[in-house]
Design brief:
This protein is an alpha+beta fold. The chain folds into 2 domains: about 140 residues, D-Maltodextrin-Binding Protein, domain 2; about 100 residues, D-Maltodextrin-Binding Protein, domain 2 (3-Layer(aba) Sandwich), CATH 3.40.190.10. The protein contains 9 helices and 8 strands. The strands form 3 sheets. The chain has a 3-stranded antiparallel β-sheet. Helix 5 crosses helix 6. The chain is globular, with a radius of gyration of 19 Å. Pfam families: NMT1. GO terms for molecular function: metal ion binding; transferase activity. This is Thiamine pyrimidine synthase.
Length: about 260
């Protein structure tokens, strides 16, 4: 959408954004609301999984559309192929639901701390039935929701001013939501045209999301960026990105927005 001019700014996970940049789409991170990763692999104990050493020979549910990159980096770190076989893992392209683990199609599925994990619990499994592997704990966490624009647009003073005001307002909203999780969840419900969301789930979700945005004022921490790049380049013969990016982030917007 952003490449075709349909949006001024997009939210993306950094692995996806950096992979797109290496392929020729010059995305630049202008703000980073999420400080920590909420991504996990959630597994059924009765599938024979108690540690990452048990992944070999198992089917693992993985989100694609750019969300697969942290998983691929992790498997590379573990030395596991992703094309099946007893010495590797079989990757199941997972929809944005948890059906594969409920229906026995996969030993593990991708989940977020604030959403899909709780869908599994709400479906009837208990925490004692499960073992979870947080990407943060496994040392393979990468930056998630950040704000990205096209590099060339930053040369336009009017565009820069618009982004400064947008980031300032966005971070004001995020920090208010951290402190007022229940009220923030009710705003989401008031704007849920589908009617599918529940108050319990939204309040629980906002409480978990607040743990991930805590510690960020919106400005990208260069150390977090370097950690993400290192993880994405650690794939041996098949890294997510092949060279350290240049110009992939800027503080030009947050330096003005967060005054």
């Amino acid at each position: 959408m952003i490449a075709g001019g349909g949006a001024d700014v997009v939210l993306d996970w950094m692995p996806s954004a950096l992979a797109s940049r290496e392929k020729g789409l010059p995305l630049v991170n202008i703000a980073q609301p999420f400080k920590s990763s909420g991504m996990m692999l959630t597994c059924r104990k009765d599938a024979g999984v108690s540690s990452p050493e048990d992944f070999a020979g198992k089917t693992l549910g993985v989100w694609f559309f750019g969300n697969e990159y942290p998983f691929l980096s992790w498997m590379n770190k573990l030395g596991l192929g992703t094309d099946g076989g007893d010495a590797g893992v079989t990757v199941l392209k997972q929809g944005f639901n948890v059906d594969p683990i409920l229906q026995g199609q996969a030993a593990c599925v991708s989940t977020m701390t604030y959403n899909e994990y709780w869908q599994i619990i709400d479906a009837g499994l208990t925490p004692d039935d499960l073992v979870v592997f947080k990407y943060e704990d496994q040392g393979v966490a990468t930056l998630e929701d950040g704000m990205y624009v096209l590099e060339e647009n930053l040369k336009d003073p009017a565009f820069e001013d618009k982004m400064v005001r947008f980031v300032r307002a966005s971070m004001k909203g995020w920090k208010w939501a951290e402190e007022n999780a229940e009220e923030a969840a009710l705003i989401v419900l008031d704007n849920d045209a589908s009617g599918a969301q529940t108050e319990e789930h939204q309040i629980r979700m906002m409480g978990e999301v607040a743990k991930l945005t805590a510690g960020s004022n919106g400005a990208l921490d260069p150390a977090d960026y370097e950690r993400t790049v290192a993880s994405l380049m650690s794939g041996g013969s098949d890294p997510v990105i092949t060279a350290a990016p240049t110009g992939a982030w800027t503080h030009a917007i947050t330096d003005k927005a967060l005054k």
